[in-house]
Amino acid sequence: MPGPVSPEVLESRVRGLQFALGELIENARRLTHGEHQRAVKLHRQMQEQTVLARRESRGLVEAATAEALASAEPAARLLADRLAPGLASIPPNDARWRSRQLVGAGTPSYVRIGQLEAGTPVVAPLLRTNGWKVTADRSEAARQLLQSVALRLIAAAEPFRLRIDAFDPRLTGMMGLLGHLTTKYPQLVPRATHTAEQLHTVLSGLVDVSSLRASRQAQLGHKRFEELIRETGRVTDPYRLIVLFDYPSGIDSLAQRDLVRLAATGGDRGICFLVHHDPATAGEHEVDPRQLLDLLTPVAISGGRVELSQLQSVPAQLDPPFDANVAAGICDVVAELAEIAVLPTIEFNRTLPDRSTWWQPVKDELSTVIGYDDRTPALVRLRSGNPALPHVLVGGAVGQGKSNLLLVLIHGLAARYDPVDLEMYLLDFKHGVEFSALGPAGEREHWLPHVRVLGVHSDRAFGLAVLRHLSDELARRSEIFKSHGNVADIAEMPAGPERPPRILAVLDEFQVLLEDDDELADEAARLLERLVRLGRAYGVHVVLATQTIEGVKRLSTRRDSIFGQVPYRIALKTTPADAQAILRTGNTAAAELQFRGEAVLNANFGSPDDNQHVLVSFADKAVLDDLRRELWLRSGTTHPPRIFHLAEPARLTDTAASVKPELGRPWTGLPIAVTEAPVAVEVRPEPGAGVLVLGDGPADALGVLSGLAVSAAAAAVLPPRFIFIDGTDSSPAVAEGKGALIQALRQLGSEVETVDKHEDIAPRLFSLRDAVRDGHVGGETYLLGFGFHGVPKMQTHADGYFESPANALQDIVRDGPTQGLITFGWWNRLHVCTEQLGYGRANVATHMFLRHPQDGVRAVCGPLVRWASEPHRGLFWDGLHPEAQVVVPFAPLRVDEVDRYVELVRR
């Protein structure tokens, strides 16, 4: 066994181990350093190879990308042109913006927002979506995009297929780029609104539009608005684009509620939003912008580039703004196209039933088709109950088709109902001629057989006369109903000759009756109120038509009492204020209409929920004339309507066709009344007989004398004798009338002697006086003095005579009637007549004033008489009645009328 190791030996061994370990570490260090150097060298080599590979790969990718883009660019451009046709995809600086060829080419669903670096247009869907929310690093860039998109869409869209409403609370004026169009066609681009109240009105109308479209789509089984348009062919409903600048600035909780409601379903109903959202603007009135913005497609602009959520990582260069002159030119072209744009016409014959069903007996109502709502006939039903729909209020701006609508309504009813069951009273208070074709005129001998009264250019006095007549008719029908066991409604009356016909009273521009501040307006308002209130039960239906009723004083106090009885409202295109006046407060639907002939039909007192959008059929004049002739022949009527023309004389031939002259009651003219009986004067062989015609107007004066003379001759048992003294130098037209009068009297068998002012009239007057004194007048004789004021030497002693011819005339007029000599004379002034006939005017009581100063009229008729002295009007005063009567003098006969008149009076 080995012995213990000494310390020295141990120390020596430890040192040996330390040396060996140091050598091992040194060798390891040397080996590691070499490997590290080799690794670093290899890493560097690999980095160099990687850089080379990347460069080579990038080059390959870039080459491949360039090749792909080069091959895809034509396809991308074609696709952009197809999705955004015409001006919707053309850059702002393109020369085609100055051409009119692409304006109105088609309503685009996509629109351009910019382009790629290679010039490829970038387009995105808008109109058939809920819309865009646009954010930007600069608000000006976002506003510019909204402005450009709006211009592109209105320029590309077909006329009236797009409407743009804008809200600009900060008054940036960005929509001013479309200012030319706003001025000319505000129904395409209304003036931008700035206040919450204005925005409420716009959104309220849009809510109604959205609701109506939803109902129509559900009814026809369509989910989207464009499907409805394709099915119905309806062009009157435009796409609606709402542009909001600086949202949510200026938005209150009420507007926010409507915005969210509209945006939630906008894409399906043709309503689209273009919203510039400014994140730095806090919502007002606790408005949460996310409620609206989350419903819209995001569009982000940064550093002049715009990016869409549909095209992520494809930033497009934002287009530059449009030149103001280019925009103005485009807007002018759009306005020109809108001016000539027309709706598809619905022919009137399409609204008529089969001829085998014409003139069916009236049951509970009168009904007719006035047009179509899409493919559904638009009915107007006039009925007394269940529900009560007795009367109609029609309104619309000038030139929007009101007269056409009335003609469609009138002729539609005439084709469906027999004249025995339906009478019409048609009055036109404006300067139109639409109703004139409904009566006989000139060579046209036929007329609409239902028309009882036809007022062409009616004046207020005749309108009041018609209202009085209809009011009396209500009383008459009341007695008829009582005689049948207290019948309460005309619908309860059994069919038969005792049941009175329904009455349709059409008053076009009825507000004229109520405009002046006078007694006539007061009475007209009272009668109109009574008519609409009581007429329902008695079968009297009133159609009130107007362009505007704003500012009519008499309606301000009676508006509810009159219109509260009128459930039917038909409003054609008009202003928002007049739309509400016709329909109802808050119902501005008629202001949204685009075309002439469009109308809002409402059978519930104008309630916005009951609006019906109607395209009124077109009443072609030739078609209506053929229909009237057919109905006239079918009726077999020979009695024309009572026709009244404003500022026109009456016609002797028309009166002779319906009234027979009576002996001793010659005619002075026609009354302003529904009756066709002329105003007659009692002429008996007694003192005071005769007629004094006073005032200016040779034609009217000759017309009065003509009516008196020919009616007296036609009624005489034996042909009378006429002495015609002419003291005037008349115009050729009046001279022809004098010749026609003399010819008519001769054809009636009367002896006619004429003396004019160029002869010495004095001997004739003195011989007449001698005949009167001697009782040798020789039967019924009439002295017709046409212009005694112009007879020479009537005021002075004539040569060879000791007294004036005026003294002889005074004796003739005063004493002649007892001997059978009656004087009908005309003087231009009362005082001249008084100078010739004396203070008592030879005891003649009957005066007819024409255009004469009021003081002379009051001297005869009383101090309270008001006389306007209008052309073709006379004021008749016989001293027997408490009030003077307004008369329409006859027109002098024309030569070609003489034979017809003589034939009529001899029947």
Automatic annotation (TrEMBL):
SUPFAM superfamilies, A to Z: P-loop containing nucleoside triphosphate hydrolases (SSF52540)
Start and end residues of each FtsK domain: 375-581
GO MF annotation list: ATP binding; DNA binding
UniProtKB keywords: ATP-binding, Cell cycle, Cell division, Nucleotide-binding
GO terms of biological process kind: cell division
Source species, domain of life: Bacteria
Residues annotated to bind ATP: 396-403
Matching InterPro entries: FtsK/SpoIIIE/SftA (IPR050206), FtsK_dom (IPR002543), P-loop_NTPase (IPR027417)
Keyword flag Cell cycle: yes
PANTHER family: DNA TRANSLOCASE FTSK, SPORULATION PROTEIN RELATED
Protein name: Cell division protein FtsK
Lineage: Bacteria, Bacillati, Actinomycetota, Actinomycetes, Propionibacteriales
